[in-house]
Amino acid sequence: MRAQDKRARIETAIAGGRPDRLPIALWRHFPVDDQRAEALAAATLHFQQAWDFDFVKISPSSNYCVADWGVQTRWEGNQEGTRTYLTRRVHQPEDYERLEALDVRRGMLGEMVRAVELIVQGLPQDTPCVMTVFSPLTVVRYLRGDEFVADLRRHADAVLHALEVVTRVYENFVEAVLEAGCAGIFLAVQPASYRLLSEEEYRRFGEPFDRRLLAVAERGWFNVLHAHGDDVMWDLLAAYPVQAINWHDRHTPPTLSEARSRFSGALVGGLRQWETLLKGTPEEVRAEVEDARAQVDGRGLIVGAGCVMPVTTPWGNIRAAVEAARRL
């Protein structure tokens, strides 16, 4: 097959075909650097220059989505690169109704739009990037903490009010990052798990607001859905209008082979970020890439991990993954 550029390689995977070689993308957080546009852009571009992945997933800290509502966090050395939440905005049900609209060009949201602009400017023209956007119910979770589950069952109207405010803000944010040059968004959905909610609850408090963000994102050509955690509502999420889906395929159903007949776009996965990328050997990394390819016969696959890599992931294991994908 004639050599493809990165966009063509990804588009072939989206269409369910076999690209000239397996596309691959891995991502990580950049703690401390992820609080300012210039630092996050520099770290992201440096990482991409080292590995030349087929797309760039921009990974700001989750606090970016709630910092402008006053939530305070601190970097305390977490291996995933995530920050510790020190305060929340919502302390009682009445606080949901006090959420104000935000200007996505100011504050932390403005920093992240600027980071996208700088990253797009620094990438080769054929390298697409997607910006992490948290689903509205995920944002509510960060605003409140785990008490959000009890709240949506006891104070549904208040939670729905907050979801409306949050969704309007992030509709504007999605529009801004697409204008800045993103190929699409990486919609990170955390609460769509049977361990947290029923499917009926997610269809009321999650899905309508997720779909509103995706309706704005449809002008992009590469939108990725990330189903986070265990026991995810996979089929519900796989029905969303996205071009690719990423989940912890080595830990929670379905497997890549099972998913191939249940989703028409690209499947992003195959690697365990903790057991294999962090703690495994290069030989084990290569074996997982080969197994992922075999599960789907090389069709519609983008090699990736179930979530962010730990910041201490050995570069030798990243190299093994990249070399294996390019060899197959």
Describe the structure.
This protein has helices spanning 6-14, 37-51, 93-96, 107-122, 136-144, 148-154, 156-179, 199-205, 207-217, 234-238, 256-260, 273-278, 282-296, 315-327, and strands at residues 56-58, 73-74, 84-85, 129-134, 184-189, 224-227, 244-247, 266-271, 301-305. It has 328 residues and is of the alpha/beta class. The protein has one domain: Alpha-Beta Barrel (TIM Barrel). The mean pLDDT is 98.
Major sheet strand order = 1-4-5-6-7-8-9
CATH class: Alpha Beta
Low-confidence runs: none
Which term fits the overall shape? Answer: globular
Largest sheet: 7 strands, parallel
Q: Could you give the count of β-strands?
A: 9
pLDDT average, as an integer?
98
Determine the fraction of residues in helical runs and give it as a percent range.
Answer: 40-55%
What portion of the residues fall into strands of 2 or more residues?
Answer: 5-15%
Helix/strand class: alpha/beta
Remind me, CATH topology? TIM Barrel
The total count of helices amounts to 14
Question: How far do the termini sit from each other?
Answer: 13 Å
The CATH architecture classification is: Alpha-Beta Barrel
Give the SSE string: HHEEEHHEHHHEHHEHEHEHHEH
Q: Mind telling me the C-alpha Rg?
A: 19 Å
Whole-number tally of structural domains: 1
